[in-house]
Amino acid sequence: MKILVDARPLIDASSGGVRRVGIGLIPAFIKNNPDWEFVLATTGSKKKALPFSLPKNARHEHLLYPNKLISLLCLSGLISFDQFFPKERVDHLFLCNLGFIGRPKVPYSLLVHDISFLIEPKWFSKKARLWHKAIRAKKSISNAQNLFAVSKRTKQDLVEYCALPPSRITHIELGTSALSEPIERQVKGRYVLALGGNDLRKNAGCAIEAVNALRSSPEFQDVHLVLIGGNPAFDTQDEQEGRIVYLRPSDAELASLYKYASAFLYPSWYEGFGLPLHEAAQFGTPCIAATAGALPETAPKGTLFALPSKPQFWQSALEMILKSPNEFFTQTQQKSWDASAQTIQKTLVEHT
What we know:
Number of domains: 2
CATH architecture of the largest domain: 3-Layer(aba) Sandwich
Structural class: alpha/beta
Shape: elongated
Largest sheet: 7 strands, parallel
Distance between the termini: 9 Å
Number of strands: 13
Oligomer: single chain
Protein backbone atom coordinates (compact mmCIF):
# COMPACT_ATOMS: atom_id res chain seq x y z
CA MET A 1 0.00 0.00 0.00
CA LYS A 2 1.20 3.51 -0.79
CA ILE A 3 0.21 6.19 1.71
CA LEU A 4 0.33 9.94 1.16
CA VAL A 5 0.65 11.67 4.55
CA ASP A 6 -0.35 15.31 4.82
CA ALA A 7 2.71 16.31 6.86
CA ARG A 8 2.05 20.05 6.87
CA PRO A 9 1.16 20.11 10.60
CA LEU A 10 4.48 18.40 11.39
CA ILE A 11 6.52 21.36 10.16
CA ASP A 12 4.22 24.04 11.58
CA ALA A 13 5.50 25.15 14.99
CA SER A 14 2.15 26.82 15.73
CA SER A 15 0.31 23.49 15.50
CA GLY A 16 1.12 22.78 19.14
CA GLY A 17 -0.27 19.49 20.43
CA VAL A 18 -1.34 18.39 16.94
CA ARG A 19 2.29 18.60 15.83
CA ARG A 20 3.62 16.78 18.89
CA VAL A 21 1.11 13.93 18.45
CA GLY A 22 2.07 13.65 14.78
CA ILE A 23 5.78 13.58 15.59
CA GLY A 24 5.14 10.56 17.81
CA LEU A 25 2.57 8.77 15.66
CA ILE A 26 3.81 9.06 12.07
CA PRO A 27 7.32 7.57 12.59
CA ALA A 28 5.73 4.64 14.45
CA PHE A 29 3.18 4.21 11.65
CA ILE A 30 6.00 4.04 9.08
CA LYS A 31 8.19 1.74 11.18
CA ASN A 32 5.39 -0.74 11.84
CA ASN A 33 4.62 -1.12 8.13
CA PRO A 34 7.97 -1.76 6.40
CA ASP A 35 6.26 -3.24 3.32
CA TRP A 36 4.24 -0.09 2.72
CA GLU A 37 5.50 3.04 0.97
CA PHE A 38 4.99 6.43 2.59
CA VAL A 39 5.19 9.86 1.00
CA LEU A 40 5.20 12.70 3.53
CA ALA A 41 3.91 15.71 1.64
CA THR A 42 4.40 19.36 2.57
CA THR A 43 3.86 22.67 0.82
CA GLY A 44 5.09 26.24 1.14
CA SER A 45 7.38 28.78 -0.48
CA LYS A 46 10.30 27.37 1.55
CA LYS A 47 11.04 23.73 2.26
CA LYS A 48 11.35 22.89 5.95
CA ALA A 49 12.93 19.72 7.27
CA LEU A 50 10.76 17.14 8.97
CA PRO A 51 11.41 16.82 12.72
CA PHE A 52 12.50 13.18 12.40
CA SER A 53 14.54 11.02 10.04
CA LEU A 54 12.88 8.69 7.55
CA PRO A 55 13.59 4.99 6.88
CA LYS A 56 13.93 3.50 3.39
CA ASN A 57 10.19 3.00 2.91
CA ALA A 58 9.41 6.72 3.35
CA ARG A 59 10.43 9.99 1.72
CA HIS A 60 9.63 13.67 1.98
CA GLU A 61 8.11 15.46 -1.03
CA HIS A 62 7.70 19.23 -0.90
CA LEU A 63 5.69 21.39 -3.28
CA LEU A 64 7.20 24.87 -3.58
CA TYR A 65 3.88 26.68 -3.80
CA PRO A 66 2.85 29.34 -1.24
CA ASN A 67 0.44 27.86 1.30
CA LYS A 68 -2.08 30.64 0.62
CA LEU A 69 -2.23 29.54 -3.02
CA ILE A 70 -2.64 25.89 -1.98
CA SER A 71 -5.49 26.89 0.32
CA LEU A 72 -7.19 28.97 -2.36
CA LEU A 73 -7.00 26.19 -4.95
CA CYS A 74 -8.38 23.62 -2.48
CA LEU A 75 -11.10 26.04 -1.43
CA SER A 76 -12.13 26.60 -5.05
CA GLY A 77 -12.58 22.88 -5.63
CA LEU A 78 -10.28 23.00 -8.66
CA ILE A 79 -7.80 20.58 -7.12
CA SER A 80 -7.41 18.42 -4.03
CA PHE A 81 -4.35 17.91 -1.87
CA ASP A 82 -3.59 14.47 -3.30
CA GLN A 83 -3.73 15.87 -6.85
CA PHE A 84 -0.80 18.18 -6.12
CA PHE A 85 1.31 15.01 -6.15
CA PRO A 86 -0.01 13.17 -9.26
CA LYS A 87 3.15 11.16 -9.97
CA GLU A 88 2.85 9.34 -6.66
CA ARG A 89 -0.26 7.29 -7.56
CA VAL A 90 -1.12 6.73 -3.90
CA ASP A 91 -3.72 4.33 -2.57
CA HIS A 92 -4.66 6.30 0.52
CA LEU A 93 -4.34 9.75 2.10
CA PHE A 94 -3.68 10.11 5.83
CA LEU A 95 -4.52 13.43 7.48
CA CYS A 96 -2.91 14.34 10.82
CA ASN A 97 -5.52 17.05 11.31
CA LEU A 98 -8.19 19.05 9.54
CA GLY A 99 -6.99 21.48 6.89
CA PHE A 100 -7.34 22.62 3.30
CA ILE A 101 -7.54 19.39 1.30
CA GLY A 102 -10.22 20.09 -1.33
CA ARG A 103 -12.13 16.97 -2.38
CA PRO A 104 -9.62 14.09 -2.34
CA LYS A 105 -9.81 11.64 -5.22
CA VAL A 106 -8.48 8.78 -3.09
CA PRO A 107 -9.91 7.35 0.14
CA TYR A 108 -8.61 9.13 3.21
CA SER A 109 -8.32 8.74 6.95
CA LEU A 110 -8.51 11.61 9.43
CA LEU A 111 -7.09 11.88 12.92
CA VAL A 112 -9.62 13.89 14.96
CA HIS A 113 -8.28 15.67 18.03
CA ASP A 114 -11.52 17.40 19.02
CA ILE A 115 -14.55 19.08 17.48
CA SER A 116 -14.82 21.99 19.91
CA PHE A 117 -15.52 24.28 16.92
CA LEU A 118 -18.86 22.49 16.51
CA ILE A 119 -19.61 22.20 20.21
CA GLU A 120 -19.21 25.89 21.04
CA PRO A 121 -18.27 28.26 18.18
CA LYS A 122 -18.06 31.27 20.52
CA TRP A 123 -14.78 29.91 21.90
CA PHE A 124 -13.23 30.82 18.56
CA SER A 125 -12.41 34.14 16.95
CA LYS A 126 -14.26 35.25 13.83
CA LYS A 127 -11.16 34.41 11.80
CA ALA A 128 -11.01 30.88 13.24
CA ARG A 129 -14.71 30.32 12.60
CA LEU A 130 -14.26 31.42 8.98
CA TRP A 131 -11.29 29.05 8.66
CA HIS A 132 -13.31 26.06 9.86
CA LYS A 133 -16.05 27.01 7.40
CA ALA A 134 -13.58 27.44 4.54
CA ILE A 135 -11.98 24.02 5.03
CA ARG A 136 -15.45 22.45 5.16
CA ALA A 137 -14.55 20.80 8.44
CA LYS A 138 -17.77 18.90 9.00
CA LYS A 139 -17.83 17.70 5.38
CA SER A 140 -14.20 16.55 5.62
CA ILE A 141 -15.10 14.55 8.71
CA SER A 142 -18.20 13.01 7.14
CA ASN A 143 -16.43 12.03 3.90
CA ALA A 144 -13.46 10.31 5.55
CA GLN A 145 -13.27 6.57 5.01
CA ASN A 146 -11.77 6.14 8.47
CA LEU A 147 -11.89 8.41 11.50
CA PHE A 148 -9.46 8.02 14.39
CA ALA A 149 -10.41 9.69 17.67
CA VAL A 150 -7.82 10.51 20.34
CA SER A 151 -10.25 9.80 23.19
CA LYS A 152 -13.53 8.05 23.87
CA ARG A 153 -15.09 11.46 24.47
CA THR A 154 -14.00 12.67 21.02
CA LYS A 155 -15.54 9.54 19.49
CA GLN A 156 -18.77 10.19 21.38
CA ASP A 157 -18.81 13.81 20.20
CA LEU A 158 -18.33 12.73 16.57
CA VAL A 159 -21.33 10.44 16.87
CA GLU A 160 -23.45 13.15 18.48
CA TYR A 161 -22.49 16.26 16.50
CA CYS A 162 -21.74 14.72 13.10
CA ALA A 163 -24.44 12.03 13.13
CA LEU A 164 -21.92 9.29 12.39
CA PRO A 165 -22.27 5.60 13.25
CA PRO A 166 -19.78 4.49 15.95
CA SER A 167 -18.52 1.78 13.62
CA ARG A 168 -16.85 4.42 11.41
CA ILE A 169 -14.79 5.80 14.28
CA THR A 170 -11.83 4.08 15.91
CA HIS A 171 -10.52 5.24 19.26
CA ILE A 172 -6.72 5.10 19.44
CA GLU A 173 -4.64 5.22 22.59
CA LEU A 174 -2.00 7.92 22.23
CA GLY A 175 1.60 7.16 23.03
CA THR A 176 3.94 9.27 25.14
CA SER A 177 6.61 11.49 23.61
CA ALA A 178 9.54 12.71 25.67
CA LEU A 179 9.84 16.48 25.87
CA SER A 180 12.95 18.41 24.96
CA GLU A 181 15.66 18.56 27.60
CA PRO A 182 14.67 21.47 29.86
CA ILE A 183 16.98 24.44 30.03
CA GLU A 184 17.86 26.16 33.30
CA ARG A 185 15.12 27.53 35.51
CA GLN A 186 13.37 30.47 33.83
CA VAL A 187 11.37 31.97 36.70
CA LYS A 188 12.69 32.67 40.19
CA GLY A 189 10.58 31.77 43.20
CA ARG A 190 7.25 29.98 43.33
CA TYR A 191 4.95 30.06 40.32
CA VAL A 192 2.03 28.20 38.81
CA LEU A 193 1.72 27.64 35.08
CA ALA A 194 -1.27 27.96 32.75
CA LEU A 195 -1.69 27.90 28.96
CA GLY A 196 -3.77 29.67 26.39
CA GLY A 197 -3.92 33.31 27.36
CA ASN A 198 -5.01 34.05 23.77
CA ASP A 199 -7.45 31.15 23.49
CA LEU A 200 -10.92 31.57 25.01
CA ARG A 201 -11.42 27.82 25.17
CA LYS A 202 -8.43 27.48 27.51
CA ASN A 203 -10.27 29.67 30.06
CA ALA A 204 -7.19 31.52 31.30
CA GLY A 205 -9.47 33.94 33.16
CA CYS A 206 -10.22 31.20 35.68
CA ALA A 207 -6.49 30.70 36.41
CA ILE A 208 -5.96 34.46 36.68
CA GLU A 209 -8.84 34.92 39.11
CA ALA A 210 -7.75 31.96 41.23
CA VAL A 211 -4.15 33.13 41.51
CA ASN A 212 -5.17 36.75 42.19
CA ALA A 213 -7.33 35.54 45.07
CA LEU A 214 -4.50 33.29 46.28
CA ARG A 215 -2.02 36.19 46.30
CA SER A 216 -4.31 38.24 48.52
CA SER A 217 -3.13 36.06 51.40
CA PRO A 218 0.29 37.08 52.87
CA GLU A 219 1.30 33.41 52.81
CA PHE A 220 1.09 33.31 48.99
CA GLN A 221 1.98 36.85 47.92
CA ASP A 222 5.20 35.57 46.37
CA VAL A 223 3.41 33.14 44.03
CA HIS A 224 3.31 34.25 40.39
CA LEU A 225 1.19 33.04 37.52
CA VAL A 226 3.16 32.21 34.39
CA LEU A 227 0.85 32.40 31.40
CA ILE A 228 1.78 31.04 27.99
CA GLY A 229 0.13 33.01 25.22
CA GLY A 230 -0.70 36.69 25.59
CA ASN A 231 -4.13 38.29 25.53
CA PRO A 232 -4.70 42.02 24.95
CA ALA A 233 -7.50 41.90 27.51
CA PHE A 234 -4.98 41.07 30.22
CA ASP A 235 -1.81 42.78 28.99
CA THR A 236 -2.18 46.05 30.87
CA GLN A 237 -2.74 44.20 34.14
CA ASP A 238 -0.08 41.50 33.84
CA GLU A 239 2.75 43.31 35.64
CA GLN A 240 0.45 44.84 38.25
CA GLU A 241 -1.07 41.47 39.17
CA GLY A 242 2.21 39.54 39.20
CA ARG A 243 1.82 37.63 35.97
CA ILE A 244 4.67 36.60 33.71
CA VAL A 245 3.77 36.03 30.06
CA TYR A 246 5.60 33.84 27.54
CA LEU A 247 4.14 34.41 24.09
CA ARG A 248 5.75 31.45 22.32
CA PRO A 249 8.39 29.56 24.35
CA SER A 250 10.72 27.09 22.67
CA ASP A 251 10.28 23.39 23.39
CA ALA A 252 13.19 23.51 25.85
CA GLU A 253 11.77 26.59 27.58
CA LEU A 254 8.36 24.94 27.85
CA ALA A 255 9.91 21.83 29.40
CA SER A 256 11.68 24.04 31.95
CA LEU A 257 8.45 25.88 32.80
CA TYR A 258 6.66 22.55 33.37
CA LYS A 259 9.50 21.15 35.47
CA TYR A 260 9.88 23.98 37.96
CA ALA A 261 6.22 24.98 38.34
CA SER A 262 4.63 24.49 41.76
CA ALA A 263 1.48 23.45 39.90
CA PHE A 264 0.05 23.32 36.39
CA LEU A 265 -3.48 24.65 35.88
CA TYR A 266 -5.64 23.47 32.98
CA PRO A 267 -9.12 25.03 33.40
CA SER A 268 -10.13 24.50 29.76
CA TRP A 269 -13.80 24.53 28.87
CA TYR A 270 -13.22 21.58 26.55
CA GLU A 271 -10.37 19.30 25.45
CA GLY A 272 -10.37 16.27 23.21
CA PHE A 273 -7.40 14.78 25.06
CA GLY A 274 -5.33 17.21 27.16
CA LEU A 275 -1.74 16.54 26.10
CA PRO A 276 -0.21 19.35 28.25
CA LEU A 277 -1.26 17.53 31.42
CA HIS A 278 0.84 14.53 30.40
CA GLU A 279 3.74 16.79 29.49
CA ALA A 280 3.68 18.39 32.94
CA ALA A 281 3.31 14.97 34.55
CA GLN A 282 6.58 13.82 32.97
CA PHE A 283 8.21 15.98 35.65
CA GLY A 284 5.77 14.96 38.40
CA THR A 285 4.36 18.49 38.52
CA PRO A 286 1.04 18.67 40.42
CA CYS A 287 -1.84 19.26 38.00
CA ILE A 288 -5.32 20.68 38.40
CA ALA A 289 -7.66 20.03 35.47
CA ALA A 290 -11.19 20.99 34.52
CA THR A 291 -14.05 18.54 34.86
CA ALA A 292 -14.81 19.10 31.17
CA GLY A 293 -14.45 17.35 27.85
CA ALA A 294 -12.16 14.32 27.82
CA LEU A 295 -10.01 15.44 30.78
CA PRO A 296 -11.63 13.20 33.45
CA GLU A 297 -11.03 10.28 31.07
CA THR A 298 -7.49 11.06 29.95
CA ALA A 299 -5.76 13.07 32.71
CA PRO A 300 -2.67 11.48 34.32
CA LYS A 301 -2.76 9.76 37.67
CA GLY A 302 -2.75 12.15 40.62
CA THR A 303 -4.53 15.02 38.81
CA LEU A 304 -6.92 17.10 40.92
CA PHE A 305 -10.16 18.28 39.30
CA ALA A 306 -12.24 21.44 39.62
CA LEU A 307 -15.18 23.00 37.82
CA PRO A 308 -13.91 25.42 35.16
CA SER A 309 -16.61 27.92 36.16
CA LYS A 310 -15.54 28.09 39.83
CA PRO A 311 -12.17 29.89 40.33
CA GLN A 312 -12.58 29.61 44.09
CA PHE A 313 -12.26 25.82 43.80
CA TRP A 314 -8.98 26.25 41.92
CA GLN A 315 -7.76 28.62 44.62
CA SER A 316 -8.54 26.03 47.31
CA ALA A 317 -6.77 23.27 45.38
CA LEU A 318 -3.73 25.50 44.90
CA GLU A 319 -3.60 26.27 48.61
CA MET A 320 -3.53 22.54 49.40
CA ILE A 321 -0.71 21.92 46.93
CA LEU A 322 1.40 24.89 48.03
CA LYS A 323 1.01 24.09 51.73
CA SER A 324 2.00 20.44 51.25
CA PRO A 325 4.11 20.32 48.06
CA ASN A 326 5.54 16.87 48.82
CA GLU A 327 2.09 15.27 48.99
CA PHE A 328 0.92 16.12 45.48
CA PHE A 329 2.39 14.90 42.20
CA THR A 330 1.22 13.42 38.93
CA GLN A 331 2.38 10.39 36.98
CA THR A 332 1.92 9.76 33.28
CA GLN A 333 2.06 6.21 32.01
CA GLN A 334 4.86 5.76 29.47
CA LYS A 335 3.22 4.31 26.36
CA SER A 336 4.76 3.34 23.06
CA TRP A 337 3.34 4.84 19.87
CA ASP A 338 3.51 1.37 18.32
CA ALA A 339 0.08 0.41 19.65
CA SER A 340 -1.45 3.57 18.15
CA ALA A 341 0.18 2.83 14.79
CA GLN A 342 -0.94 -0.80 14.82
CA THR A 343 -4.55 0.25 15.43
CA ILE A 344 -4.41 2.50 12.37
CA GLN A 345 -2.75 -0.20 10.26
CA LYS A 346 -5.36 -2.78 11.24
CA THR A 347 -8.23 -0.43 10.40
CA LEU A 348 -6.78 0.50 7.01
CA VAL A 349 -6.27 -3.16 6.06
CA GLU A 350 -9.82 -4.06 7.06
CA HIS A 351 -11.34 -1.19 5.05
CA THR A 352 -9.18 -1.34 1.94
